[in-house]
Each structure stands twice: as structure tokens, then as C-alpha cells.
Design goal:
This protein is of the alpha/beta class. Helices cover 29% and strands 28% of the residues. The strands form 4 sheets. It has a 3-stranded mixed β-sheet, with helices on one face. Strands 7-10-8 form a 3-stranded mixed β-sheet.
Length: 195
Amino acid sequence: MKKYGLSPRLLLLGGLSLLLAVLLLEARIDLYNLSTELTAASAAPAMHVKPPPPVFVPQLSGLSCLETRKLLAGAALELEVGRLEPTWYQGEPANCKFLIYSQDPEPGTHLGTHGKVTVWISDDYIKMPDLELMTLDETRQTLRQYGLKLEEVRSGNTQFPRELHRVICQEPPPGRAVHKSGEIRITIAEHIIVI
């Protein structure tokens, strides 16, 4: 090493200086890259979490509170009992077996998860029986068993012979809550039409 006029100490110091310069340069490059990434990340649009899909409020009329509680829990909705009839009932309203006769919001309404559905219950309502394909005499007998009164009988047409002289439409529909003194309307198929 002496022949070039450099002492081993100078060579060692030069090598260390060079190594230190390279390390500082790499650290600067890393800092620059990190700064660039942070700037790009702050300029990028924020990621949005997809909201849960809307929940449709089911038809609750004619159900008991027990059935309703299970149905709404499965749809991630909360049950609230608005008014309780009879007022003498002292138990837990959401556990009673009285029927729901009204609800808010209406069936088919979109709610977010954990939305609240208010129901009104009473022991003056019963679940409307299914009268489809009953004769007029069978219909009267069924309604009498439920304490209901047939208010109106309309005449209708059918394409199907098995429906002739039988109930083809009823109001309220089967399964809905109907007041014990409510008006029941039916349509009996009186004529067959050929299409």
C-alpha cells in the first residue's frame, strides 16, 4: 500500500467514509419513498365500507308476539309494543299470545338493520281462517266457529271447474288479524268462463 502513498489508516478511513455515505444515501431514499407513499395514500379516495342491505318489514298482522319476535330477530329488527289491549294484561307484552292487528311501519318498508317495528296487539282480534275452495255453507259454519259474521257474498267467474260454487276470494286474506266483529267478504265462483 505504501507504493501508492496511502497508509492503511487512510484506506480504512476512506472505506468507512464511503460506507457511511452509502448508508446515508439509502436512508434518504427510504425516507423519500415513505414520504411519497404517505402523500399518495392521503390523496387516494378513502375506502368506504359497504352498508348492509336494507331490511324489508314483513307482514305481521295475525301473528302472535312470540312469532313476531322470532321473525323480527331473524331480520335484525327490533320489536316494540305500542299499545296493549286489554289494559288489564300485566305480563310481558312481547311474550303474550294476543294477535297483532296493526303495525308501523307498513309491510314492505325498507329499514336499516336494528330498525324498530311497533305493533299493536289485542285479544279482540283473531287470525282469519282460510276459506278458499269452501262452499257457502262450509264458509258460514267456519266463520260461526270463529265468532265471525259474513257481511257480503259476491258472485265471480272462474276458469277452473273445481272452483265452481266455491270461495275464490276473501277479504281479509287468510292469516291476517281480523276484529271479532269485523266484516268478512267472499267471492263465490258462479260461472265458468272459457278463454
